[in-house]
Prior knowledge:
CATH topology of the largest domain: Immunoglobulin-like
CATH architecture of the largest domain: Sandwich
Order of helices and strands: HEEEEEEEEEEEEEEEEE
Bound molecules: copper (II) ion
Distance between the termini: 72 Å
Number of domains: 2
Amino acid sequence: MFKFISVISSILLSLFSLHIQAAELSVDVIDMAGLPVENAVVYAEPDIKVALPQTAAIIEQRGKQFNPLVSVIQTGADVTFPNFDSVRHHVYSFSPAKTFELKLYSGVPTSPIKFDKAGTVVLGCNIHDTMVAFIQVVDTPYFTKSNKLGKAVLRDLPNGGYTLKVWHYALAKEKEVVEKKLLVKESQPVVMQFSLKPFIIPARK
Ligand SMILES: [Cu+2]
């Protein structure tokens, strides 16, 4: 009988351990005046590395603009750059995280570009100076962007230690991210505040 009970309890234990505790971080991204910051990249790097598949991303060119303005991808992810304009574009980056160019083309380039190093990649077009976009390449599958209200929600974070990071193209200190160490045990709100520098993005539709 005791043996039977212990078998049952070990089965139950293993069932429970299969169910990993996960939580949600609701992040409010604000500037020094307390105003919401849109298009901030918010990501949580777990202390213990996790391997989750990277998802591919698409950055379109429409009306001589990149869309979206800000992308966040996991290190190793592929990005395609379809051109929906009738004019040709010449997409390039000089950023150390990824230097590349897609020479003057229309339509969809035959192969995507792989971003295999974490960091910030600034995109431009050789033909149209006003075209600009940003890719933040991050070493974690847990990432998102803040909306117009400065809200960003990271879901399904397994419990544990994290470094929560925020990057924005107008961060006062370039090449820096704002970060905070966190122990995730349950869903919780977090406020991330930082100063921005004046930064003019060419007019967008
Ligand atoms: Cu162009």
